[in-house]
Amino acid sequence: xxIKDIARLxxxxxxxVSRVLNNHPDVSQDAVKKVMxxxxxxxxxxxxxARNLGMSSSDNIGVIMRGISNPFYTKIITAxxxxxxxxxxxxxxxxxxxxxxxxxxxxxxxxxxxxxxLILLGGHLNYTKEQVSSIGVPFVCCTxxxxxxxxxxxxxxxxxxxxxxxxxxxxxxxxxxxxxxIAVLLSAVDDGSVSQVRYAGYKRALKDFNIPEDDNxxxxxxxxxxxxxxHEMSKWLDKGIDFSALFCISDNMAMGxxxxxxxxxxxxxxxxxxxxxxxxxxxxxxNPVLSTLCQPMEHIGxxxxxxxxxxINNEGQHQHLTLPTTLREGETLR
Amino acid sequence: xxIKDIARLxxxxxxxVSRVLNNHPDVSQDAVKKVMxxxxxxxxxxxxxARNLGMSSSDNIGVIMRGISNPFYTKIITAxxxxxxxxxxxxxxxxxxxxxxxxxxxxxxxxxxxxxxLILLGGHLNYTKEQVSSIGVPFVCCTxxxxxxxxxxxxxxxxxxxxxxxxxxxxxxxxxxxxxxIAVLLSAVDDGSVSQVRYAGYKRALKDFNIPEDDNxxxxxxxxxxxxxxHEMSKWLDKGIDFSALFCISDNMAMGxxxxxxxxxxxxxxxxxxxxxxxxxxxxxxNPVLSTLCQPMEHIGxxxxxxxxxxINNEGQHQHLTLPTTLREGETLR
DNA sequence: AACGTTACTGGAAACGTTTCCGGAACAAAT
DNA sequence: ATTTGTTCCGGAAACGTTTCCAGTAACGTT
Lengths: 334, 334
Known about the structure:
2 copies of one chain form a homodimer. By secondary structure, chain A is of the alpha/beta class. Chain A contains 12 helices and 12 strands.
C-alpha cells in the first residue's frame, strides 16, 4: 500500500495525496475528503524512509547519555521519550561509557541517523568551540549548569538546575542545624561535570559560613555509582576522622554512603546528618528517609524537548533554562 | 557527499561502490582498495533513508515497554540498547501507559518505523492468535513466563525467568524459617502479568506446605509502583491482621512496604520477615538489606537481542529461554 | 471580449541508495 | 578457432515520497 495506490483509489494524483497528508494549503475540501476516506479505510501510513529521502531530512531526535545506570536519569528519559513521541519525532537513544567522547559520538550519530537535533544528558562543560561546531544540528544539554561553560551560549541550549546554588543551599541546611564539620562525598572535581560545580557550591558555603576547608573531609570517588560510594565511604570511615554531617552530591551516592554509616554503627541523624541532591524516588524510601534537594526531573525532560523542537522548527533561539529545586525534608537532618 | 561523489572520485561506477560498501562478493580487491580510500578520506556514511528505501527495509528494532518507571527495567534496557547498537541496528524505544494495548502499538509502530523486529518488555500473556499475527515482524517478549501463554510458541520468542518457581522458592525461604502466616503483596491477579504468575507460585507453595490460603493476607495494588505499595500496605496494616512474614512480588513494591512497616513500628525482620523478587540495585541498600531473588537482568537483555537478531537474519528459530535466578541473602529474614 | 486572478491539480524530476541484467575481458576447454 | 565459463563491471530501473512547475477551470475586472 503506497501513495500511488491511495491516489488511484481516491481518483486523484499522487501530488494531491501528498499535499493532503502534509496539510498543505492548496487543496480542496473535496480532495481532502476523498483522500482521507481511502487513507482511513486502508489504515495507510506513509513510508518514513521515502518521506525522509524526499525531504532530505528525518524525524529523528538523538539522545546521548552517559550512565543511564543512575536512576536519576530514568525519570528524565521517560519524560523526554514521551515528549519526543508527542511532538511527532522519533527518539534514537545512544548510551555511551564514561570514557567515550560524547561530542564525537554525537557527530557520528548525526551523520549516521540523520538527526534533526540532539539531547545530551549528563555531560561535561569543557567542550571546545571546534568540538561544538563539529556537530551540525541544534542540541540541548541537560542537567549540568550553564554558567560554568566556556562556550558561546548561542551555539546550544541547556536545561538544568543551578547546581552551584543548590549545593550551597544543601550545605546551608546542615549549617543551620549547627553543623560545622561537614564532610562531602563527591565524584570528579576537575572535569566540568556536575560534581565539580556542586563542589564549588560546597566550598562557597563553607567560606560564607566561616568554616575552614579541610581536605580530610573530602571523600572522592570516580563515578556516581552506588556501590562505589558504599565502598569508598566505608574506607574513609575506617580512618576515624571526626565529622558530624555529610553532604552527598547525589542521592544515589547518599544511599551507598548511608549503608556504610550503618555498617560503621553511626546513627543517622543522631551521629551524622545527611543531605543530598536529586530527589530520586528510591531515596524517599530509605530508612531513615533521605533529606534532599529535588530536581524537577519531568519538567527538565519536557523543557529540553520543547526548546529543541522550537529551534528545529525555526521558532526559537537557543536558550539556557535554570529550573528551581525544592527541599524534601526527610529524616536525616537534626 | 553521496555515493555518486564517491564513485566519481574513486573512478568506478555507483554500483561498484555500493557493492564494496555492502561486502558483496563480485568485486575486485583493486576496486575495494580504491573505494575504501575515498570513503575513509571523506568519512562518508551512506544515507540510511535511501538505503532503507532501496532495500525496502530498515535497521530499526523496536522496544516497547510499559512502565520504565520501575527501576528493574532500566538495567535491562541498558543491556538491550547496548546490544542492539553492537549488532548494527538502531533502537527505537516506545513507552506505553498501563492502559494501552501493546500489540496495537506494536502493529502501528511496525508500519510507521518499518521495524525489523520488536522486543516487548513486561507485558501480558493472554494475546489472541489474531493479535499476534497482526504484527508482521518477529518479536520477543521479555520478563514474563513462557509456560502460561496460550499461544503457539513458534510465533514469537521469550526470555525470562521462571516466575512461578521463583515465587515458590521465595515463599519456601520464609517457610524454612518457620513462617506460616505469610502475607503477599501483589499487583493484578488475572491479567496474565508476572503478578498473576508469581501469585500462582505463592499459592502452590502454601499448598505444598499445608498452609491454608487466607484472603486476609492478600494485599493487592494496581501497579508496581513504590508509592502505591507504601499506601496500600499502610492501609492494610491498619486492619491489624496477624502475620509474621511478607512476600512481595517485586523489590520496588517491597521498598514501599518496608517503609509502611516502619511507620507501623513493625521491626523487620524481628516482627516481620520480608522477601521479594527482582534484585534491583537500590534494594541492596535499604535498611535492613532486602532479601530477594535476583533476576539476571543484563543476561536477559542480551539474550533477547541475540535471539531476535538471529531470527531476523534467518539464522534461528523462535525459542523460549528461561534463565536462572539467584538468592540474595539480605537482612530481612529470620 | 479579453485579461488577470485565484484555487486547485497532475506530471515529472529529484532524493540516495540497491540490485537486476547485460556485457566485457580473459582464461580454459573443446 | 570456437565455445564455455569466470570474474568483474556499469547502466538503469526501482524503492515511495516531496515539490517544482506548468497548466486548467472558474470567476471577477476592465
